[in-house]
Structure formats: C-alpha cells, structure tokens
What does this fold into?
Amino acid sequence: MPHYLLSAHSVEGEARQPMTDEEMKEISMRVGALEDEMKSAGAFVFGGRLHQPDAATVVRVSDGQVLTTDGPFAETKEHLGGFYIIEADDFDAALSWASKTADCVHTAIEVRAFWDQREG
It folds into this structure.
C-alpha cells in the first residue's frame, strides 16, 4: 500500500491570535481522536510534532570533514512543524486524511507520496 507524507507547515511571525489553554486542550483532544481514527483504519504509520527551527542542527560532509551549523537548513520564515506518515489505498484517500488533519490543526497540509522503488 502506498505511503504518503502529510506535513504541516508554519510561518514564523504569522499573525495569529494566541490560543487559550482551553483551545489548546481542544486541539490536543481533536488530534488524539484523529490519530485514533487513523490507527483503527490501519492508515497511521508514524507522526510527530517538531521543535522550532532554531533548535535544528544541519550536518554536512565536505572533503571528508563533518561540518555542523546551528539553525534550519534553509533561511526562510516557513518551516515544517509536524507530520504524519500514513498508508492509503490511493492519493484520494490520502487527501481525505489530509483534509481531516487540516481541519483538526487549523493549518494547510501538504500531501506527498513516497517514491516507490518498484516504479523505477
């Protein structure tokens, strides 16, 4: 069965009203219910929320030397905030999970299929 990445992106400095504790609890409950639904449908493979991009470290190898730098790979205001890896029968099924996710976390969700080595 094909695997898909459902990724949630955030925009640094984007104007948003801060959430109340009650709103945070509500979203947490909705995310938990969505994950339970994904698991019971056999779609859930893995998911996670990421730390802020300034906590990232980039590793490169140049002339056999390992170089590390602080911060995100790309200097941009947009960053990956979290993701799910799911199994779905087809792209339309993945889009259905993405729409439920977008509704749950109130942000756009990008859907990308994993490359299947058997495809060539």
In short: The CA atoms of residues 8 and 109 lie 5 Å apart. The chain has two helices and six strands. Residues 21-40 form the longest helix (20 residues).
